[in-house]
Amino acid sequence: MDVFAPMGGVVKVDAAAMDMDLVNTVATLMQTRQTILPKRLMPPGPDPTQMRLILEAAASAPDHGQLLPWRFVVVPDAARDALARVFGEALSERDPLATAEQVSQAREKAYRSPFLMLVVVDAMRGDPEIDLHERIVSAGCAVQNVLLMATAWGYGSALTSGKALKSTVLRTLFSLDAGEHALCFLSIGSVQSRKKTPLRPVHDDFVSVLLG
After folding, report:
1. Cα gap 23→56, rounded to integer Å
2. Angle CA(177)–CA(139)–CA(187) in degrees, nearest 5?
3. What confidence tens digit (pLDDT) does each residue in 48-90 have?
């Protein structure tokens, strides 16, 4: 079997010597992962040892220039009230006519899922020639590693976004610098209920060949 080497060229790989059990395990892990909305995540979440291993999986993400252009901010239980207040204020700023019930619903999102963190991307850290798109790709790879490791431990997970991510009150709460962007929230917990696994796109849906 021919395999492209990292620095170019082709190396020969003995297919018989490959650990097919590992290949199959990784394939199954990726196919098994699905988004479990935070409202369907319940305690217990990962314990501290599991959580550290889950987060450390992010370190193997591609990182052009070794910038480490992303970081995670964990939201512990003690900070959920502050985040709830920010979610409510962000909604009221966007929509002064929001009802008390709508503000309450916005606040409630801060309490969903046992584990919650914000993913932050830095557009200015390190080499300025490495643009924001590359940094976001690196962050996306780091997040996917985290999601897969959480799945391997048997937990459900989800990414969530929303207009509050761009609000001044949220940026202030998380002490974001001028060049930093709040990319998304990531939730992890035990699965309360699952929906049927969605139909995945197949190879020909997203792969084409350049015609020379």
Report:
1. 21
2. 90
3. 999 999 999 999 999 999 999 999 999 999 999 999 999 999 9
In this prediction, residue 150 has a pLDDT band, given cuts at 50, 70 and 90, of very high
For 150, the domain range is 35-75+113-166+177-192
Long-range contacts of 90-94 (CB under 8 A, 24+ apart): 90/163, 90/164, 90/167, 90/169, 90/170, 91/164, 93/167, 93/168, 93/169, 94/163, 94/167
Q: Is residue 70 part of a domain?
A: yes
In a domain, 107, yes or no: no
Residue in the structure block whose two tokens are 């992890």: 188
Q: Look at the chain and report how many structural domains it folds into.
A: 1
The domain that holds 133 is classified in CATH as 3.40.109.10
The pair of structure tokens assigned to 178 is 């001028």
